[in-house]
Write a structure and sequence with these properties.
Radius of gyration: 17 Å
Distance between the termini: 35 Å
CATH topology of the largest domain: Glutathione S-transferase Yfyf (Class Pi), Chain A, domain 2
Oligomer: single chain
Number of domains: 2
Shape: globular
Strand content: 5-15%
Low-confidence stretches: none
CATH class of the largest domain: Mainly Alpha
Length: about 210
């Protein structure tokens, strides 16, 4: 069996992080390949033909190639299911649906916030400008939803860890790492998720500029 994950060479992609964490949590041996997106390496014929979409992350499992991080996570959970491998999504039907809803929402909404607090401000250099009105509205919406979802659930969204915890923590870190106002409960949650071994393995890959 061969597993290869393609990520961006600066390791700033939250979606590559999600796929990396999924593979690591599953305990699956894999090779990590990186592409310089700023140089357009993902647009070159070799990767274009491999990935179909030119996007990262891409997972290559033997002769099968898949992009889009949420699709990769779901594929891994079905290809390497529990109990043989740790689950990436909650066991209950409704909890799994809620986790998928959260993942899709975090990926499709919050454009002003993601632009004002891009992931380079999380991993490398904090932003110097305050949030604008649209980004602040997105932050308020995110904080409200996170507080509702975590209410009474302890350390994780659904009692036990799932990959949506990493995705939510990543979005919260856009605010926390830049000194924006975040309730202490959510700061503690994001900090605990950031200390998870799979996330720490990713952080240790960051280049030093």
């Amino acid at each position: 069996m061969s597993l290869v994950l393609y990520a961006n060479s600066s390791y700033t992609s939250p979606y590559a992080l999600s796929a990396f964490v999924a593979l690591t949590e599953k305990g699956l041996p894999f090779t990590l390949e990186t592409l310089d997106l700023e140089a357009g390496a993902n647009l070159l014929p070799a990767y274009r033909d491999l990935s179909l979409t030119t996007r990262i992350p891409a997972l290559v499992h033997d002769d099968f190639v898949l992009t889009e991080s949420s699709a990769i996570c779901e594929y891994l959970d079905e290809a390497f299911p529990a109990p043989g491998h740790p689950a990436l999504l909650p066991p209950g039907l409704r909890q799994r649906a809620r986790a998928r809803q959260l993942q899709a929402w975090l990926r499709s909404d919050f454009l002003p916030l993601r632009e004002a607090r891009d992931t380079r401000t999380v991993f490398y250099q904090p932003a110097t400008e305050p949030l604008g009105a649209a980004a602040r509205a997105g932050a308020d919406k995110l904080i409200h939803a996170a507080e509702v979802l975590l209410d009474g659930n302890g350390e994780h969204l659904f009692g036990a860890w799932c990959v949506a915890d990493t995705d939510l923590a990543m979005m919260l870190q856009r605010l926390i790492k830049n000194g924006d106002a975040v309730p202490a409960r959510l700061r503690d949650y994001a900090a605990a998720q950031w200390q998870r071994d799979s996330v720490q393995q990713w952080l240790r890959l960051l280049p030093i500029y």
